[in-house]
Amino acid sequence: MVGDTCVTEEGLAAIVGRDKCYHVCGSAHGFYDAGELIRKHQPDLLLIEPFLEDRDGIRWIKDLATEFPRTRILIVSRQSERIYAQRALQAGAAGYWMKNGSAEELLRAVETVAGGEIYASPLITSLAVQKFTRRSNLPHDLDALTDRELAVFALIAAEHRPGEIAKKLGISRKTIESHCEHIKQKLGYANVEQLKRGAREFLGTSTRPPKNPL
């Protein structure tokens, strides 16, 4: 298990450990300890919070899925599944469970992913069906962003400046500024202030979609 806090890791371990079918072989706090933990234990199933402030979460999922193809990945996150679940599954995860769900739902997700299947909540299943049938009333704005642009947008929502974002993602400030321009164009923001406000509304504490920019 890889969580964003020690409390998270201990809580997840306690819930999963209730079922004697599973053995929790270890836990790590954050990105830097995760790789070593996985290489050491070679787990069948990895529970991970990938959306940490020092990491592009979707790229991390892709890297883990590539390096450890035999380890199935279950995302356990507080980040909106409406925004991230589809991208996480496309990146190589086998399930997405939000931390505001019940313990029973978590165990169901673990059982599903451990059994070789894909776990998705009823909401994500419904959205997938609606997309398949091409309903026109679905929220689609963020679909226009690339995975890297979404990572930058999330860090803007966390109120990081371009230089800080560049350092966290390991790319140049100029590249970050280019991503910001693309985000503004794709989402219709006229200036930096609208970009910041939109990021907070989309990906911050509010779970409601943002208002259309002025």
Helix percentage: 40-55%
Q: Structural class from helices and strands?
A: mainly alpha
- Rounded to an integer in angstroms, the radius of gyration calculated over CA atoms is 18 Å
Strand order of the largest sheet: 3-4-5
Distance between the termini: 43 Å
Strand fraction: 5-15%
Spell out the helices and strands N to C.
EHEHEHEHEHHHHHH
Shape: globular
List low-confidence stretches: 205-214
**Discrete helix count:** 10
The largest pleated sheet is described as:
3 strands, parallel
Total strand segments: 5
**Mean residue pLDDT:** 83
Report on the structure:
- The protein has helices spanning 6-17, 31-41, 57-67, 81-91, 103-114, 122-132, 147-157, 162-169, 173-187, 192-203; strands at 2-3, 28-29, 45-48, 72-77, 95-98.
- The protein has 214 residues and is mainly alpha-helical.
- Helix 3 (57-67) links the parallel strand 3 and strand 4 (72-77).
- It is globular and about 55 Å long.
- The N and C termini lie far apart (43 Å).
- 30% of the residues are buried.
Give keywords:
214 residues, mainly alpha, 3-stranded parallel beta sheet, two-stranded parallel ribbon, 10 helices, 53% helix, disordered C terminus
Short description:
This protein has helices at residues 6-17, 31-41, 57-67, 81-91, 103-114, 122-132, 147-157, 162-169, 173-187, 192-203; strands spanning 2-3, 28-29, 45-48, 72-77, 95-98.
